[in-house]
């Protein structure tokens, strides 16, 4: 049993179960209604019920007064459907719709996904949530005004924890702390969301998604968001690394293509030793993608990698594959000045490694 919910003025619809809030139902199906705390405190999710019945749950009276309720307003993070509904609410469709916030976060879990990759799951305070678009990033705030930037690897609907993929870099001050000193329950401060690298949901074009190393993080968020909203646009995902260990969530990516026929996944290794007996594709990941898709005039491309990789992909996709320039979206990784100086002092040159378009990242 469940109810049909329509949203005005967008005319989007979704299905709500009787035991879940309107907001949870919308997010579960990839529809981004505004919210802040998801706990009936901030009032950000306030909207109007145009028709239908709902139960207001634990809505705080100081946020939603009896007069508001009589006028048809509800807090969608607390209200649950009791019939088919028609609601009036704005939707989050661009970065301008989302406020940038500074929040504390506690390290909930540290997972060594590869010898040089740690996955950090962060937990916000119980009364807080961070709204973001799939593919955006946050800054981890450090002392002396410094910060380090990492993509959010979880989809927006799965925001109980914020997930970061961190690769260890020689000379990287923050990543050294992550690998040598960070512990579960440590406190951090973050600011975000940031970035224009996110899925353009108003398009129906097939998507070519190309990542290398931990550049997989925002690609993962985009794919999982598309799955959640039942998007059936063809998605061709290419993930490149040097060796097998660089593809640290390979089983997850392979599962996408098994469970969803419109998603195609291709792993690529550029420097796999013979002892690995790698049976898959070899070479530069963007070159392999281009070989499979020589004509991209009708595509969108999402590329997350090192500056060199992003630059090469842009030039080759636009020049050789006829990808429209306005359909190329990218995140490129730059090292922080202090990290780059340390690496040069130790004669360790930056290797091709992806993350976001941030000059202050030592990952």
UniProtKB/TrEMBL annotation:
Record-linked InterPro entries: 2Fe-2S_ferredoxin-like_sf (IPR036010), 2Fe-2S_ferredoxin-type (IPR001041), 2Fe2S_fd_BS (IPR006058), Beta-grasp_dom_sf (IPR012675), Cbr1-like_FAD-bd_dom (IPR008333), FAD-bd_FR_type (IPR017927), Flavoprot_Pyr_Nucl_cyt_Rdtase (IPR001709), FNR_nucleotide-bd (IPR039261)
Keyword terms: 2Fe-2S, Iron, Iron-sulfur, Metal-binding, Oxidoreductase
PROSITE patterns, alphabetized: 2FE2S_FER_1 (PS00197), 2FE2S_FER_2 (PS51085), FAD_FR (PS51384)
A UniProt-annotated Pfam family: FAD_binding_6
Gene Ontology MF, one: oxidoreductase activity
Residues annotated as domain FAD-binding FR-type: 100-200
Enzyme Commission (EC) number: 1.17.1.-
Domain 2Fe-2S ferredoxin-type: 3-93
Transmembrane segment boundaries: none
Protein name: CDP-6-deoxy-L-threo-D-glycero-4-hexulose-3-dehydrase reductase
Species whose genome carries this gene: Candidatus Accumulibacter cognatus
Organism ancestry: Bacteria, Pseudomonadati, Pseudomonadota, Betaproteobacteria, Candidatus Accumulibacter
Name of the gene encoding the protein in the UniProt record: ascD_1
């Amino acid at each position: 049993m469940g109810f049909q919910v329509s949203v005005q003025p967008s005319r989007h619809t979704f299905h709500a179960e009787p035991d879940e809030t309107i907001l949870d139902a919308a997010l579960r199906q990839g529809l981004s209604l505004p919210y802040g705390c998801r706990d009936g405190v901030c009032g950000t999710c306030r909207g109007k019920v145009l028709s239908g019945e709902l139960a207001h749950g634990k809505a705080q009276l100081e946020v939603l007064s009896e007069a508001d309720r009589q006028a048809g307003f509800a807090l969608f993070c607390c209200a649950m459907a009791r019939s088919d509904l028609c609601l009036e609410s704005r939707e989050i469709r661009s970065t301008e719709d989302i406020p940038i916030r500074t929040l504390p976060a506690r390290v909930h879990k540290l997972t060594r996904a590869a010898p040089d990759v740690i996955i950090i799951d962060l937990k916000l305070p119980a009364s807080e949530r961070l709204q973001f678009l799939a593919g955006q990033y946050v800054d981890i705030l450090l002392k002396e005004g410094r910060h380090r930037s990492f993509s959010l690897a979880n989809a927006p609907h799965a925001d109980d924890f914020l997930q970061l993929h961190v690769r260890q870099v020689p000379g990287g001050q923050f990543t050294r702390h992550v690998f040598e000193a960070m512990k579960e329950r440590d406190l951090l401060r973050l600011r975000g969301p940031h970035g224009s690298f996110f899925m353009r949901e108003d398009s129906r074009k097939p998507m070519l998604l190309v990542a290398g190393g931990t550049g997989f993080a925002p690609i993962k968020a985009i794919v999982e968001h598309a799955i959640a909203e039942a998007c059936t646009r063809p998605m061709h995902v290419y993930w490149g690394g040097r060796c097998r260990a660089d593809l640290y969530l390979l089983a997850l990516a392979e599962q996408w293509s098994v469970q969803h026929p419109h998603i195609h996944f291709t792993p690529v290794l550029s420097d796999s030793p013979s002892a690995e007996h790698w049976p898959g594709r070899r070479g530069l990941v963007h070159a392999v993608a281009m070989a499979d898709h020589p004509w991209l005039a009708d595509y969108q491309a999402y590329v997350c990698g090192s500056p060199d990789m992003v630059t090469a992909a842009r030039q080759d996709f636009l020049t050789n594959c006829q990808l429209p320039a306005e359909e190329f979206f990218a995140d490129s990784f730059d090292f922080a000045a202090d990290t780059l100086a340390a690496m040069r002092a130790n004669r360790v040159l930056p290797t091709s490694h992806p993350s976001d378009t941030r000059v202050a990242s030592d990952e």
